[in-house]
């Protein structure tokens, strides 16, 4: 059995379960792994009972060793594996387990200065910040939390306190985001800090709207991905607070209830109060009910809904219904 591929062993294991349980496990696996395992399942006409017992036995000992290591009992795990398998096989399993367990979530941030982490996360959704700070060193997390705006501090602290175990795919998604931001930061520093998104966005925000449209149109033709990254940073969900009430009401008339409820699921108290204030009493009550009905939601779904609201604001500006003034002297006005 030692020469059997991992995907074939996984296929045998899943065939030992019910279809519903097997499907539940497959949902958390990478697409390439799912394809490899399903190919093996399709090729199997029957599973030899002796082979099935061996696979189940190996899985049991692996899971037990995993638990022992997680509890700090690496020596005990090694001893248990050596009793179950020969020395070479036990050594191979321990090596794989240690390599897997040594990679903790957000490992890349453990050597990053707290001020840099603050700069990386300050524009992120409060739930995203909460997930990150709940996995970094407590001293790091404390320094970052202290550096955030006071209203955001409270929101993030509350989310950390109420947070359960984050889904692996959510952690992976946020890790990818942070790694990309660190990569962008490193590129900016390598070029002497002379450019980058953090430089062009304020420039465009202070550019006349006609000139900005022309620049963005050209960028969309040359580099659509870069244009989208710039656009997402130019006017963000939190900037809605800087619109006056009439502009917010125009935005609310264009958004559907489901999108608004999803966007408000992750809004800070100030934003929630501002939106509710610009709805009728009945509409505000319906929105609160819609938010409660949603239950737990994915961060990316909340952020997508918030982007839709931002897009509506930009559409209103393009149509001349509202004006987002340029320059530091004026805020966003109708």
UniProtKB/TrEMBL annotation:
Please list the residue ranges annotated as the Flagellar motor switch protein FliG N-terminal domain: 3-106
Phosphoprotein: is it a keyword of this entry? no
A GO cellular component annotated for this chain's UniProt record is: plasma membrane
**Which GO MF terms does the UniProt record name?**
cytoskeletal motor activity
PANTHER family registered for this protein in UniProt? FLAGELLAR MOTOR SWITCH PROTEIN FLIG
Q: Which SUPFAM superfamilies match?
A: FliG
For this UniProt record, the keywords arranged alphabetically read as follows: Bacterial flagellum, Cell membrane, Cell projection, Chemotaxis, Cilium, Flagellar rotation, Flagellum, Membrane
**Protein name stated in the entry:** Flagellar motor switch protein FliG
The record's annotation in Pfam families points to:
FliG_C (PF01706), FliG_M (PF14841), FliG_N (PF14842)
Membrane topology per the entry is:
Peripheral membrane protein
Q: Where in the cell is it found?
A: Bacterial flagellum basal body; Cell membrane
* Encoding gene, per UniProt annotation: fliG
InterPro entries per the UniProt record, alphabetical: Flg_Motor_Flig (IPR000090), Flg_Motor_Flig_C (IPR023087), FliG_a-hlx (IPR011002), FliG_M (IPR032779), FliG_N (IPR028263)
Pinpoint the Flagellar motor switch protein FliG middle domain residues: 115-186
Query: What organism is recorded for this protein?
Result: Sulfobacillus acidophilus
Biological process, per Gene Ontology: bacterial-type flagellum-dependent cell motility; chemotaxis
Question: Any idea where the Flagellar motor switch protein FliG C-terminal domain is?
Answer: 218-324
Q: Which family does it belong to?
A: Belongs to the FliG family.
